[in-house]
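Weekly modeling sync, notes
Attendees: S.R. (lead), two postdocs, one rotation student

Agenda item 3: backlog of single-chain predictions. S.R. asked that every request posted to the team notebook include the full sequence so nobody has to chase files. The rotation student volunteered to paste the first one in as an example of the format we agreed on. Action items at the bottom.

Example entry:
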Amino acid sequence: MRTAEAKGASRAPAALRSRAATEPRPVKWALIASAMLFLAVFLVIPLAAVFFQAFEKGAEVYLKSLVEKNALAAIKLTLLTAGVAVPCNVIFGVAAAWAIAKFDFRGKNILITLIDLPFSVSPVISGLIFVLLFGASGVFGPWLSAHDVKIIFAVPGIIIATVFVTFPFVARELIPLMEAQGSEDEEAALALGASGWKTFWKVTLPNIKWGLLYGVILCNARAMGEFGAVSVVSGHIRGVTNTIPLHVEILYNEYNFAAAFAVASLLTFLAIVTLAAKAVVERKTHEARAAAEAAVEGGGRYEY
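Predicted structure, as returned to the notebook:
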């Protein structure tokens, strides 16, 4: 029965490919031209415009804009924020994905829903929530003021807001991968006497490495480019609480276009690198999922 279903499933993509191959040539060229035009208008031209504007006044102005005191402070704060947010989300993502994929427990669907919460809430609203919680007039504001702890309009608030808006990325990449892999490998390792930590490091982690790396890439890109939530909690204190996106906004509002585009080119370069890394890791992740599904269907082992 399973063999017949597998053959039927394999015939479907073949039939679609055969149909696509028989489409009239003008239709194929029109579709390709439409896709290329869309990419050129909404991706290639804007990216080229950023670098063109950044170097319009020469390389010297470009470099001066990057090494300016407030620009360096924004770069350092952005790296610090991503350096804290990404590891936090890796720990949470792995733990949440392991719990959801490997165990059945009461409240599992609620946890899955909460993981998707930052995707459905505006980043600005997310930042406002933290202001209402940790601001001077917020729920915990009086206690924080009494103990001289600053969260809002300070670095901790920026980190907390960034962690919130980025925590679904790692978990959402790992959950389907770990569900496809099942728990047979871990159960076998435990039956052979391996400890829980050894099972994780030697069995689970190697099997999820590509999905984990894919989630880390997306999480890091979002953390470094986050604007809405960070804008609400930062206070826009130049040289203190401005990340790269906020610094670019200030420069642009001051009509300092050369410096604004110079600093923006850093994020643009990050976007290009992220797309390239995403393409490579996405292919590896698909291969890992396909191997896991094949192993589950065949009842055999799989390797990476």
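Discussion: group reviewed the output briefly. The mean pLDDT is 85.
Action items: rotation student to repeat for the remaining queue; S.R. to check formatting next week.
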